[in-house]
Amino acid sequence: MKNLFLALLCLWSCRLLAQSNVVAGYVVTNEGDTLRGQIDNRDWRISPTEITFQSQVGQTRNYVPADLREFYIQPTRERFLGRVLAIDAVPFGLDELLQIDSPTQVAAHQQQRTEPVFLRVLTEGPTRLLFYQGKTDKPHFFLEKEGQIQELINQRFLLSGTAALFSNAFYKDQLISYLADCPQLRNRIANLDYNQVQLANLLTAYNRCKGFVEVPQLEKGRWAVDLLAGVEFSQLNFSGDGGPGYLRNAPLSSSTAPVGGLAVAFYPARSREQFSYRLETTFRTYETQGVGEEYIYQYDIRFKLSYLRLNALMRYTYHKGKIRPFAGIGVANGLTVSRTNQKILRSTTLQNEGEALPSPRSWELGLMAEAGLSMNRFQAIYRREWSNGFSSLSALRNYVTVNSVLLGYRLLKNRAPAPFSD
User: Fold this and answer.
1) Most buried of the four, 43, 51, 245, 348, by CB within 10 Å?
2) What is the DSSP letter of 244?
3) What beta strand segments (E) does 346-395 contain?
4) Each residue of 338-370: pLDDT tens digit?
């Protein structure tokens, strides 16, 4: 059954590769025409160099920044401006910093490059904060005021003859100048870091000072809660050169049992919900029995264990189409809440009943891998898990292999943060 499941998953994955993640939106051409249709939304961490747009009559065209004034993604309410700008090109990586003899040489080491870019609008209002991120570049923030766009400069240099860094936080001087008509913000600028949250909040406060109230378009993650239910197929094995001999050679039966629980998924900002981190709590039971031999005696062996589980996984979902394949890896932790650990001697003359495994541990640790398909609120999941079992004897290793087939149902999911309106 698991081979059939993986084969179907592979077929679905191949089929979905040709599909696009198109959403409603519009583009504004350089001539000022607004064209409504659908845009292939990549939820870009790296600023796009071109976009694919499909008009309402079905015509598809790719646009680069020089072709458009702006484009707008309706579901996430994100606006991008097409501009040709001079961008700060001073190296920022630690392994490529420019060397200067003193801070007075910063002006002589300025570098710029001019290129067409799509700028994402982070705050709307009389003064706008814009953002650009290249593939191998540092983040760039821009201020647009009265139709003029100016980059906020943040640089660092290596002082010659030392390992010391010099930070050129010129953006603070720029902001003090640009926002001088709201002097109450001056002290706030002095302690401002060069990041999206602090800059967006400052620009929102400035626009509010000028009588414009708007919520900044900040990047926030999303979360969801899933209900899980299914069935597990478990196999318990012992191996080693010590411990009770009747366990080393006992063929134990496999176990089939239901499993259920809850999962909380967190999707990082701008991941298009492709990447997620999951914490799951489940309750599971497995039971196995067999006959083991030691010397001339035979023992009936029975284990029945119930666990409260806490799993932590990372999952990647192919974010296209209605049916979306996913795969993940993680670690599993299990706390024993009840245990039957029994051996009974098969004899008509002797009575010997007790623990089959002496001093079993209560905490198990394992690794797991998963693959599955999701559609709307539903998920179909196949998992395989390998755990270190419950034997505390160094000479008698114990491991458990678990195959699971699960169904998931999304109970809750928070909405995207409410950005500025169209």
Assistant:
1) 51
2) -
3) 353-354, 363-375, 378-387
4) 999 998 887 766 667 888 888 899 999 999 999
Separation of alpha carbons 120 and 350, rounded Å: 81
Of the three residues 188, 209, 230, the one that is the final residue of a domain is: 209
Which of 167, 185, 209 is a domain's end point? Answer: 209
Q: Is 380 inside a domain boundary? A: yes
Contact by Cβ (8 Å): 343, 355: yes
Residue 96 burial by CB count (10 A; 0-12/13-18/19+): exposed, middle or buried? exposed
Dump pLDDT digits (tens) for 74-92. 888 899 999 999 999 999 8
Q: Indicate the helix (H) or strand (E) that contains 205.
A: helix 196-209
SS3 20: coil
Nearest to 307, CA basis, from 371, 366, 254, 356: 366
40: number of Cβ within 10 Å:
17
Contact 255, 288 (CB under 8 A): yes
The reported pTM is 0.59
One domain, residues 84 and 118: yes
**Structural domain boundaries enclosing 278:** 222-413
Return the C-alpha torsion angle 388, 390, 393, 398, nearest 10: -50
